[in-house]
Every structure is written in C-alpha cells, then in structure tokens.
Amino acid sequence: MVRSALRKTTRPEAAARPHLAHLDLDRALVEAARADPARFDALYRKYVAHVYTFAVYELRDHHDAEDATARTFLAALAGLPRFRERARPEDGEGASTFRIWLFRIARNVINERRRMGRRRPEAALDPELDAAAPDDLEAAVVRRETAETAWRAVGRLRGDRRRAVVLRFVNELSTPEIGAILGRSDGAVRVLIHRGLRAVARDLLRSGDGHEGRA
Amino acid sequence: MTVGPGARDGEIEAFVVDRYLETLLAREPRGAADVATEVRTTADRLVQDLPRFHPSFRFVDDLAARLATAAAGPRDDPGRLIGFPPIPVRDDRPAPVRPVVIGGVLTSAALSLAGAAYVAWRRGHPPAGPMSRAVRAVARARTA
C-alpha cells in the first residue's frame, strides 16, 4: 500500500514541471534530511499534526488516522531520495512542494484505507476539543456544539469537495497547493470550495444552525 | 490568479470567494461585501469552528522512534524501511553445503522414506570433519 502511494506521487507529468526550487519553504529541511535521514525528524515534527488532522477528517477514526499518518511518513522517508522540489511562481511565497508531495502520499494512503474500511462498520468519532477553562464552561459548551455541527456538515460533503474544504479551512493550504494535491486545476479547486461552502451553508440552515442565528 | 474571458458566472463567483478566503485565512479579511452573505458567514464560521486534531504524544514519539530506526538503516533498501519482506533473488548456482544440525535434520528427515534412507546412509559414511566428530560424540552420549 505504501509503495503504491509512492508510485502515484512520482508520475512523469509531475516531473515535466519547471524546476523553480528557490520558492520552496522547506528546501533547507529537505536537503538536510537528504544528507542525513536522521534529520527527517524536523520535517516529521513540522507536519505530523497536519497529516493526522487531514486523516482524521477523511477517515473519521483516530486509530485509522494514526495508521495512515504512520504509513505516510514511513513512505515519505523511504521516497525522499526520489523527491524533487518543483515550486511554481503561482504557488506564491511560502509554498512547499514537500508539503504537497507529503499530502499526495497521505491522500493515496487514505484512499487505500477508505477502500479497506468499507468492508467494516464505520466508527463514530466526535471531535475532541481543547479542555475548557473551568471559569468559562458555558462558552466552552457552545464552542463544542458549534464545532461538532461544523465538523458533521463538512463530513457530509462528498469526495474532492470535502477534501478541498478541509485542506483550505483546516490545513490552510493555498488553492494552487490543493490543486497539486488533488490533481486539479486552480479554477476547479475554487469551484469545489465555493460549492462546498454553499452545501455546508444549506446543511447548517436545514439543521437549524444557520448563520442567521449567530452573531 | 486570474480568470479567463471564457469564465462562467460560477467560476467568477468562485474566484471572488477565493480572494476573500485568502484574506480571511491571513486574518485580515477584505472584500466581504463582494461575497454572498451565506457563503461569507459559512466561511467565517468554518475558519473559526472547524477543529484541528493532534495525535497523542505517545503516538508521535513512537512514530519518531520508528522513523529514526528506519533512517538508520541502509539507504537503498526502502522495502526494508517500510516493513516489506525482501524480494528473493534467483540464484542458479548450486546451493552451498550447510552445517548439519542434528535435531532438525533427524526430525524432518524422519518424516519421509528418502529422509530415513539418507540418515541410514549418513551413519554408514561418517564424514571426517571436526564438527561431524563432535556431533557423533554428542549423539553417542545421548544414546548411552
């Protein structure tokens, strides 16, 4: 599974992109890890929560998300010698082709995992939020309820529409980065997110938790 | 980030929303008036309300240890790093003569007639090596 995830991220069309590495945010860390694989730890620590969060949103199960996260980083470490920086000017400042590459591996690993998961019942998962301050329990309860409503509404989106919304709003990736991860054009990603937002708005309205009831 | 002349209304609207999201995620929202109210309010809400997750520290440390072990291994053997068994390489050369381990050979050879015949023949033709002498001495001591 990990090998197939890697194979899908090193396709020839990706290699044909112009090599403009000067923009890449993680260049120094990647080069250090290439020179000494023990220094991959810095990249791992930087992105482990991002990959794990993406996996939780996709798989809706903490254990499956941990497994997908582990497979993603083991595959990334094994494939690092074959990784090439390919930041493009349109990716903007702060873009990281390593991050794109890592999320593509994660996406492939998660897809495999989801296919396996269809053969067994889906585990329920509620978002575990930060512990509330003892003197602000009421606000914490409201916050938890609104978070759960948003979490469920996003979970009801389908396929790439859900992935695009999660990568944009939770992982806070740029539109070109999301396009590179999902294998879609920037325009297609913008439309996915726009339609996703409209669908979530309708969902919240139906559930009686729409925008008109909030400050 | 541009929209071509052939863009449809939906694409233009998506482009305007994307520009708003860019500023919203930078915590400096601008252009809110150009975005439909329900879309803007939903976007504001998702930025604020969608939870982030962090794996347990135990998991993070365990995986870091696995990665460190993998990083310390041979560079050109990624299959080993990620837990795949090594692919056997076919070798047409004659198999080397392996040391005879008495218990294992007797146990497995006794399961077939050929094995029994081999053991009988082997007893009648003792090899002269020091290891064989030691093995025979052990066998005699056991039967005594």
Helix and strand arrangement:
The complex is a heterodimer of chains A (215) and B (144).
Chain A: H1 2-8, H2 12-15, H3 27-35, H4 40-59, H5 62-79, H6 97-117, H7 137-155, H8 159-169, H9 175-182, H10 186-206
Helix pairs in contact in A: 1-5, 1-6, 3-4, 4-5, 4-6, 5-6, 6-9, 7-10, 8-9, 8-10, 9-10
Chain B: H1 9-25, H2 37-49, H3 57-72, H4 78-81, H5 102-109, H6 113-124, H7 130-143
Note down, in words, how this protein is organized:
The complex is a heterodimer of chains A (215) and B (144). Chain A is mostly helical. Chain A has ten helices and no strands. The longest helix of chain A is centred in the middle third of the chain and has 21 residues, at 97-117. The termini of chain A are far apart. Chain B starts with 8 loop residues before the first helix and ends with a helix. Chain B has seven helices and no strands. Chain B is 58% helix and 0% strand. The longest helix of chain B is centred in the N-terminal third of the chain and has 17 residues, at 9-25. In chain B, helix 1 runs parallel beside helix 2.
Structural class of chain B: mainly alpha
Major sheet details of chain B: none
- The helix/strand series of chain A, from N terminus to C terminus, equals HHHHHHHHHH
Give a short account of the largest sheet of chain A: none
Quickly count the helices of chain A: 10
Q: Note the quaternary state here.
A: heterodimer
Mean pLDDT of chain A: 79
Helix content range of chain B: 55-70%
State the total count of DSSP E strands of chain B. 0
